[in-house]
Amino acid sequence: MTEEGSERENGGLGSMDSMESRWVYQDEEGSEIDNEGDDQRGVGGNESPQRDSEDEDNAEQRLIRTGPRIDSFDVEALEVPGAHRSDFEDISLGRRIILAFQTLGVVFGDVGTSPLYTFSVMFSKAPVNENEDVLGALSLVLYTLILISLIKYVLIVLWANDDGEGGTFALYSLICRHAKVSLLPNQLPSDARISSFRLKVPSAELERSLKIKERLEASLTLKRLLLMLVLAGTSMVIADGVVTPAMSVISAVGGLKVGVSIKQDHVVMISVAFLIILFSVQKYGTSKVGIVVGPALFIWFCSLGGIGIYNLVKYDTSVLRAFNPIHIYYFFKRNSTKAWYSLGGCLLCATGSEAMFADLCYFSVRSVQLTFVLIVLPCLLLGYLGQAAYLMENHADTTQAFFSSVPSGAFWPVFLIANVAALIASRAMTTATFSCVKQSTALGCFPRLKIIHTSRKFMGQIYIPVMNWFLLALTLILVCNISSIYEIGNAYGIAELGVMMMTTILVTLVMILIWQINIIIVLSFATIFLGLELTFFSSILWSVGDGSWIILVFAVVIFLIMYIWNYGSKLKYETEVKQKMSMDVLRKLGPELGTVRAPGIGLLYNELAKGVPAIFGHFLTTLPAVHSMIIFVCIKYVPVSVVPQSERFLFRRVCAKSYHIFRCVARYGYKDVRKENHQTFEQLLIESLEKFIRREAQERSLESDGDEDSDSEEEHAVSRILIAPNGSVYSLGIPLLTEFKDTSKFISEASTSEEKPGPSIDQITVDAEQSLEKELSFLRKAKESGVVYLLGHGDIRARKESWFIKKLVINYFYAFLRKNCRRGTANLSVPHSHLIQVGMTYMV
User: Fold this and answer.
1) From residue 283, how far is each of 92, 188, 724, 773 by CA, in Å?
2) Coil vs helix vs strand at 654
């Protein structure tokens, strides 16, 4: 689905609401683990699952052996250029200049507007009594900006990206790729063979890294703690997306008080109007808006630098002494507790640093680093130096330090560009929020929402309508109830510091497990930056009663939503694993599955990594007939940002050849684009299945030539599954055809040659070719009869004997989220008459 000619909706060929978070228990070899042992039975009887497990282990071995030769197919990425970081390579000089402007407009708006309010919030806690107070506060700001924004984020954290993707979930995905620390147990050996996996070559620090890795993998408590840290960091990013627009716009519009006499109520009304306009243009995308606001923000940074130089020359160049950190010591010595309170305001100079990392998916690391070092940082330093020079002679103007320091002749132009910059800053954090929501959704930690891709060139540029209006509503509530920039500043600091601390912990793990650098460097990074951030955090928490508690409550609510969604989806998948249909049941039912096989292809979307889903048994008992060919389609998100097109899909055969049942496993990265086009999907699906059948025949022919006593047909026909889905699915189809007669004859024609013995190798070859042509003919006839999508909607309910908390979480909170998240049929591009849906409820 497209909007404005270039936007595309995420969710692929029909994202099912039942395909949220998927897990599969595995042992070290990737085999599925059934926690219930011999007590678990498949649908339909008391068959032991032991035989199924052994068959699936054999299937795993066979897939590892034949995997590289299996044909794959892809639909969506064929039309999406720029699936890799090469988007930013080999581009023209003109394109690089445009990219630089977009980087300014998208990434640096938040940190660029911090001079509007930093000194005002600081001096509200520690009033200026003498010039040394100004020098001490300036020194604090300069070194906070240098240590956190420059050294930590620009020079270190940006390199901890996951193939160009930034943010807390990108770090978590990167860690999960190198250690089995995810509570989503869907990692398998085959994942490591994806070319974009790119594990690090062992270094001298490997032994220490392995010890820590083993400790993390062995401790369920540490795994849960790591996930909770990631969820907490993401919830703070989303909370930051609420408070950033409020702070930026209120502080910019508040500059009117310097130029004209205006009431605070009028400032709030103008701010509300600006915010509505801001969120309304968000849908036009980063590329469209970035190219417009990029030059505007460039003018803003030039204005900061120019005003700073003017004030330095006019008032007092002695503020350059603030580069000596001894003035920080003097500041705390004179003001003690008040200086400690002012740390919360000082941190505001580094707000937007996390947005630089979260928005990294839009641009390359080098472009962000160079733009910051060559343009952003010098202008910010000059801006703060100029304000301090002005305040050295005007101690009473601290309430509007920036606008008071602007020369009178340039006030209105600067006021105009400052408001434009404030709107841009709000967009920077909003786009970062969109990126984090998309990542968390793909990894099964956030309810599925409609995601629109706003750029044909850069697949990371997205827009989430529901999230956009949700952020607007909360921002308006915050602005209307807390109009003081001092109180909003406290809330701003809490949200920023929460994300910063989570990032510090995760990057420390990346240094140990992935970079494998010297432990002294790792400890130095963790000690310096975590200690610095905890100091700032202690100052802000002391003022939490000033109104900033609202943002904490909002962050807690977002955290609970994410945790409940993750917990409920995990529980649902575990239950489906336990209740999977036994392979022995299918064997006893025979090729016709105990029902009528009507000509046609049925695409059954399921969530199991291995085995036959219980919902298939429900289809067999509910429908009067099933299709002559069944394909189980599984979707799996792997811990990489992008899965190459040629490695996305795998086919395997389920049961004996005469059953005509296949499994298709689709592997996606959390950044992959999935475009809806069911007609293209149908065509490529059938073509790819034909290639798989031909390749399978070639493999069997080679094996027969090498060893006439090779595996039996039944051993070859066992379920070849190894990937569990963790996301949404596709859908298309037409109504089930039940009017066909003689279906048994239709099916048997394709399998008559399977058991024909041949007196010689030549005869065996001829029979094999005939069998291949008959199966391909069977496939074409089934295709002509139509493709139908079988959608199974599984719900969970807590058992009566469950704890009250579990009943509350599963039966009400999780059920509410599932009911109101994006439903699968909303993503389908086919008529409802082409779908067959069956519901099933599991008691957990």
Assistant:
1) 27, 38, 33, 51
2) strand
Beta bridge partners of 612: 581
The confidence band for 15, taking pLDDT boundaries of 50, 70 and 90, is very low
Of 421, 83, 427, 92, the C-alpha closest to 100 is 92
CA distance 329 to 334: 9
Asked if residue 52 has pLDDT above 50, the reply is no
Asked if 791 and 739 touch (Cβ cutoff 8 Å), the reply is no
pLDDT over 70 at 690, yes or no = yes
Torsion (CA) 90, 96, 98, 100 in degrees, nearest 10 = 130
Measure the CA–CA gap between 429 and 246, rounded to whole angstroms.
11
Nearest residue to 764 (alpha-carbon basis) of 717, 705, 696: 705
Q: How far apart are CA 49 and CA 580, in angstroms?
A: 10
DSSP state of 374: I
Structural contact between residues 407 and 333, judged by C-beta atoms closer than 8 angstroms: no
User: Judging by DSSP bridges, how do beta strands 625-637 and 661-668 pair with one another?
Assistant: parallel
- Close Cβ partners of 404 (under 8 Å, ≥ 6 residues apart): 258, 390, 394, 397
**Look-up of token digits 């807690």:** 556
Among residues 583, 582, 601, the alpha carbon closest in space to that of 714 is found at: 583
Q: Provide the 10 A C-beta neighbour count for residue 439.
A: 26
Spatial distance between the Cα atoms of 721 and 613, rounded to a whole number of angstroms: 12
**Measured distance between the N- and C-terminal CA atoms of the chain, rounded to whole angstroms:** 37
Query: Measured between alpha carbons, how far is 74 from 685 in angstroms, rounded to an integer?
Result: 8
Helix, strand, coil percentages for the chain (3-state, nearest 5): 65, 10, 30
Rounded CA-CA distance 369/363 in Å is 10
Q: What is residue 263's three-state secondary structure?
A: coil
Of 781, 698, 754, residue with least CA distance to 71: 698
pLDDT for 527: 95
Beta bridge partners of 462: 453
**Of 613, 626, 618, residue with least CA distance to 583:** 613
Q: Angle at which helices 264-280 and 411-442 pack, to 10 degrees?
A: 50
Minimum mean pLDDT range among 301-315, 458-472, 680-694, 753-767? 753-767
> What CA–CA distance (Å, rounded) separates 498 from 504?
10
Tell me phi and psi for residue 165, to 5 degrees. Answer: -100, 135
**C-alpha separations of 362 from 88, 102, 172, 353 in Å:** 10, 9, 19, 15
Instruction: Say how many C-beta atoms besides its own lie within 10 A of residue 702's C-beta.
Output: 11
C-alpha to C-alpha distance for 62 and 39, rounded to whole angstroms: 28
**Span 795-804, average pLDDT:** 89
- Could you tell me which residues come within 8 angstroms of residue 219 by beta carbon, excluding any fewer than 6 positions away? none
pLDDT at 391: 92
Q: Could you identify the residue written with the tokens 């995760």?
A: 506
Rounded to 5 degrees, what are φ and ψ at 340?
-65, -40
Other C-beta atoms lying within 10 Å of the C-beta of residue 206: 13
Among 230, 234, 220, 236, residue whose Cα is nearest residue 505: 230
